[in-house]
Amino acid sequence: MALSPFLKAQNPETTQIRTCLTDEHNQQLLNKHPNMMGSETYENRLAPKIETLKTQIKNSNGQRSLQYTIPVVVHVIHNGEPIGTGANISDEQVLSQIQVLNEDYRRMAGTNGFNTHPDGADVEIEFCLASRTPDGCVTTGIDRIDMSNINTTWASPNTIDAVLKPATIWDASQYMNMWSVNFGSNGLLGYAQFPGGPANTDGVVSDYRFFGSNDAEGVTIPGVYNLGRTMTHEVGHYLGLYHTFESNGAGNGCSGNGDYCDDTPAVASGNYGCPSNLDSCPFPSGMPDMVENYMDYTNDACMNVFTNDQKARILATLQNSANRPNSTSSDACTALAAVNDDASIEIRSMDTDACTGTVSANVRITNYGESTLTSAEINCDIDGSDSEVYSWTGSLGYGEFEDITLPTLINSAAGDHNYNAEVTTANNNLDQRDCNNFVSYQFTSAESYASTTQVHLTLVTDDYGADTEWEFRDSEGTILYSESYSNFDSNTTFNYSFDVIADECYTFLITDSWGDGLTDEGGSYTLTTDDDTVIHTGSDFGDSEETLISTYTLSTEDYFRTTAISLYPNPVSSQLNISLGSSNNLPDSYEIFNILGQSILQKSITNSSDLSINTSAFSNGMYFIKLTKESSSTTLRFIKK
Fold first, then answer.
1. pTM check: above 0.90
2. pLDDT of 446-467, one tens digit each?
3. For the chain, what percentages of helix, strand and coil (3-state, to nearest 5) are there?
4. Residue of 126, 234, 422, 545 with catalytic role
5. Residue 100 backbone phi and psi in degrees, to 5
6. How far apart are CA 210 and CA 188, in angstroms?
């Protein structure tokens, strides 16, 4: 029996062919979870429950009713593209996939999911995008995650299961987790985890290029797998179905009832395209292959059948398998109690420049409050300082949103930083749900070498010098210097100098055609400045390594970027203190504002005692303190309790 429900497309942009990949993925899971689907134990346990359901279905006389609704969260894994671009697929594309699932599993009249096959079944389950997050906040059921800092493509299911899924999964007992990812150019369409496997990797995965339906307005998906049937197929695996051509390990699909469904005719192997009147088994049985079954490999346009026995397996799975949520075990699709003022924020795209240290966010403000949202205060900062307050005004009804660009912030310190944005007020009131008020994005600022006039490269080739090439580019991508070592000796030292100018951003790229860097016999490279300051040194870089080199003159005089200012205790009951970290350089003054933006206290700072503020007379609530030094300022938030 083939246990791995992977689908592969050859050249997904042009000719597409579904083929089954290896059994390794689910076989690995079976090694650790020997009683999951794919095992004899699992089938023996489920078999009597399936038989009971088959009898009930037979006695229902074709009466149709909704039995279960499955709550869904769609994790859109992208690389920071704007919504609707590349892997960051549009809301419309996500919604079209949920619609296809409902059409297919309900055998819905007037849709691609309808059929007149005598064994065709309305599975009597539906799917809904989640209305609440695991922490009890409002959601659309679409969870957008930029994971470009880890991977830009997810070609390996093992990497997805080891890295991506555990970092992004919502409670598998409450949600069916769906992932839309970029598989790269390997042609993989999607895969699912069978029932009974580990909870932290449970769910279904599809390449974003095959997620959703080309029939939906505003959605364009090319090829023959463009009607959402990749996910219909994968969800079938998730709900307990095998391929129709499974063989029970007997050699091929003609050898036995490999999918445990009597009403799916024997099929020798997966069918492709849209064949008709095909009986693929060596001795024609008078029962042609059910090429229209969702668990075959035919084109999306040819699929429209789940059978009654498949329906029985699905219902038995929902009733008896762990982590198969539905409307009897999960309230994830139940709307939260209404509140008046609830503004949520999510990052749509980020604009960062590692050389200049600038960062700005395009964010989406959505109203989930019953009152029309007419104003909101948004605080944005880097690492808790460099704060800016953005005041938004407009008019948004419930569920309506607006995309805005927040102020550009600058951080001059090299290294990793967090850009934070937080809704602090909605309609001049405290936001009544704080679980959707905060977003954060990690970015990196490059070290600046503003005083150097040259960058020096010392390269020591390894045993295979001909494998190595490098290039030195400016911010426009123009190659200023480059070298190939195809005609050079191995184990040799080469020295180069690159002229550089101030306020520019350069990139040094080194590549190795064998993919093992300079690891053989002491190979290495080092980039330095005029005064021999080491910019970067490397050796074991695999296929390639890229180093960003900035000559921008970054402001080190900005008081609020060089002083680690914080407030404590926060929340405060009486005495609020301003901490300057290790600095003794005092700010000039402070001013405190209430949540309505009204100034309630101003004071010049002349000595360290002015850094303690008596808040005993303040009413309970949120306040902002604006600290000023010469022409610069920063704003921090505190809570009076």
1. no
2. 888 988 999 999 999 988 888 8
3. 15, 35, 50
4. 234
5. -60, -45
6. 10
